[in-house]
Amino acid sequence: MTQDNRKPLDKPEANGWHWQTNILHTDTQLPAGFSAMPVPVARASTVVFPDLAAMRSLDWKNDSQWRYGLHATPTSMELMRRLAALEGGKHCLLFPSGLSAISNVYFGLIKSGDDVLIPDNAYGPNRDHGDWLAQAWGITVRYYDPMIGDGIGALIQPNTKLIWLEAPGSVTMEVPDIPAIARVARERGVLTAIDNTYSAGLAFRPFDHGVDISVQALTKYQSGGSDILMGGVVTIDDDIHHRLKQARMRLGVGVSADDCSLVLRSLGNLQLRFEAHDRSAMTLATWLGTRHEIAAVLHPAFEDCPGYQHFRRDFTGAGGLFSVVFDERYSQAQIDAFIEGLRLFKIGFSWGGAHSLALPYRVPSMRTATPWPHKGGLVRFYVGLEDVRDLQADIEASLKAHLGG
């Protein structure tokens, strides 16, 4: 039999507990008088209640009650409060990604037998999600011309429960008449949800134009660092918020306090970054419009972009995203070589960070409701925070090397 040479625990401290117990049971609070600009990071799964009465009195509809870290902590609640205020909303919910936020809108509002309308220029994963629900969950999904305006009324059926909007389209850049669509939908008792990622909540305020739900991929401008995955859903109606919140609870999704703190840190310079992206993108888009290799520049602030009049009426800025259509004499292989020849524009999904991106898209295969009028290949540019002169020189060098420009 071996001898146990372990030392006994130290003597109890003044409160009667040993040090191991005391390092676990501390009453940590910010001392009176301490104040700092950063929002404290509150990491928690378990939330401790003062007594059983407090626990039993919980109401999941009450956003001011702490229940469980999955639902909210002081850090995530502060981010939700600021995001709601940014868009002029009342409530906000956070999700692990932009697509997760879109998914929650479906699961919170749509059931078997319902009908959903999606614009033909919608974010690809939203289309995929709708198609999946149609195949597996017994809903119907129909795609509509994004420029339909108040003509949307002719498509609304008795079982139509949700109309998606996207402004502008994330690849093809058409800007719909959002107030007209929202007005008709509201008259017919149909909810509207917009993917408002393009504007970062800064350049377009959906609730001022009659929209019910605003969805954003906070992965993009709000993060600004290409290192956070997060989505947000903002609403003004209590009932809609409760339906979406209940779906979020049932799905068991959440976000980390650390990720929330990084987005909170970036919100202070969001406006400055968005405006810088906007200026550089306008400069590059204008220059590309003079190039013989380019058949069309698809930028919402350009008069020949479909829906320009809506953009000028409803938006205050454009940010860093736009597309170009190459002359049809260039093959897809040549366009691909041009993209791969860029040094500063990287190849990758998502956008909103400091680094510029370029991606090709085969638009005709992405549309089912409206014909695509262009014959040449499309490239979407995201303009980051590099010096715009270097970005222009990068494009010009690759055009010359691979398209003979």
Tags for this entry?
12 helices; 405 residues; Aspartate Aminotransferase, domain 1; 4-stranded antiparallel β-sheet; 2 domains; globular
Structural notes for this entry:
GO terms for molecular function: cysteine-S-conjugate beta-lyase activity; pyridoxal phosphate binding. This is Cystathionine beta-lyase. Keywords: Lyase, Pyridoxal phosphate. It catalyses: L,L-cystathionine + H2O = L-homocysteine + pyruvate + NH4(+). Belongs to the trans-sulfuration enzymes family. Strand 4, helix 6 and strand 5 form a beta-alpha-beta unit. Helix 4 packs parallel to helix 5, helix 4 packs across helix 7 and helix 11 packs across helix 12. The model has no long low-confidence stretch (mean pLDDT 92). The chain has 2 domains: 199 residues, Aspartate Aminotransferase, domain 2 (3-Layer(aba) Sandwich); 136 residues, Alpha-Beta Complex (Aspartate Aminotransferase, domain 1). It is 34% helix and 14% strand. It is globular and about 85 Å long. A 7-stranded mixed beta sheet has the order 1-7-6-5-4-2-3, sandwiched between helices. The protein has a 4-stranded antiparallel beta sheet with strand order 8-9-11-10, covered by helices on one side. With 405 residues, the chain is an alpha/beta fold. The protein is built from 12 helices and 11 strands.
Could you give a short description of this structure?
This protein is of the alpha/beta class and 405 residues long. The chain has helices spanning 19-24, 52-56, 74-87, 98-109, 124-136, 178-187, 238-251, 257-267, 270-288, 308-314, 332-341, 388-403; strands at residues 91-95, 115-119, 140-144, 160-166, 191-195, 213-217, 231-235, 294-298, 321-326, 357-361, 378-382.
